[in-house]
Amino acid sequence: MSLPSRLRRPEYTGENRCWPCTVVNAVVVVVASALLGVVSPPLGVLALLAGSALVALRGYVVPYTPTVAPRLIARLPVDVGDRFGHARPERADGGRTSESLVDEEVDGDELIRRLVDAGVVTADESGDLFLADDVRRSWEAGMRRLRDVSDAELAASTASAAPFPAEGRVEGDGDWVVVTRTAVAEEDRDDAETVAGAGGDEVWLSRAHAVADTAAVAAIGDRVDPLTAAQAATPIRLFLESCPVCGGAVEETVVKNCCGGTVGVYDKPETPVLACADCDELLYEF
Ligand SMILES: [Zn+2]
Fold first, then answer.
1. 188: which residues sit within 8 A by CB, 6+ positions away?
2. pLDDT in tens, 79-119
3. CB within 8 A of 100, min separation 6: which ones?
4. pLDDT digits over 241-278, tens only?
5. Residue 115 sits in the same domain as residue 147
6. pTM for the complete prediction?
7. Distance of alpha carbon 58 from its chain centroid, rounded?
8. Ligand 1: centre distance to CA 251 (Å)
9. What total number of domains does the chain contain?
10. How far is the CA of 97 from the centre of ligand 1 (A)?
């Protein structure tokens, strides 16, 4: 293998070249060579040639540019959008975001009214909502239990929390629980409403959300109908005080400070979120 082909990094050159990174690096090479040239002109020329060759062959010369440049830019008070095409690296899961057990529009006010009526949440004089103490205890106990079960058991439990016949499986080394609807909604459910969708529809939940939602449905399932319980599971994530997967403290932060920052799938760095202080798991996006 020739030296140039050994140095070449196809993932950062040719079609994959990141032009903002190339420009940043070219500027670095020119400035560094000029500074070196002041000390020793031949050395400056050599640095310019070597640096340019590396940028041409490898796409960048400053180590970790593909990782660092987008974060650097994210901190600058300018909006460059996602011109850093690689700001979201290819992920095994295709860069997906966690979904909800029930994939349909929900009337938030109506849902809250039902949850208040059922004693699942309580509202104080100012209208702030709280999870009822006994619901929280049952929910948190359920999460602690599900944290330790096998992938297969978690997948089966999550599937049974869906308000339709479903099967569960785990993907991405256990990072995702996928719930697949096996049939259209049964007509004889307590609630007359039917859930939109047909057999084969899939819902992808992060493991944290699968644990939280499955335990939430179990905690409130005797107070509301299965569809309401599944719909409520997503907003109930807002009440998390400990991480569903590791038990760590939940903190309010912004996307750029957690969960892979702006190189993750969430590209709005200032989006406020709830995340685990210990394992960095994204738990709720406001
Ligand atoms: Zn955690």
1. none
2. 444 444 443 333 344 567 889 999 778 899 999 999 999 99
3. 203, 205, 213, 231, 233, 234
4. 999 999 999 999 998 887 766 555 556 778 899 999 99
5. yes
6. 0.64
7. 30
8. 10
9. 3
10. 17
Shared domain check, 212 and 106: yes
How far apart are the CA of 257 and the centre of ligand 1, in A? 15
* Closest CA relative to residue 206, chosen from 260, 135, 131, 130: 260
Structure tokens at 8: 């070449």
- State in Å: Cα 65 to ligand 1 middle: 29
Q: How far is the CA of 280 from the centre of ligand 1 (A)?
A: 6
Is 99 in the same domain as 214?
yes
User: Residue 58 domain-assigned?
Assistant: yes
102 in the same domain as 48: no
What residues make up the domain containing 39?
Answer: 3-75
C-alpha 202 to ligand 1 mean position (Å): 25
Q: Say if 167 falls within a structural domain.
A: yes
Residues whose CB is under 5 A from ligand 1 (ion)? 243, 246, 248, 276, 278-279, 281
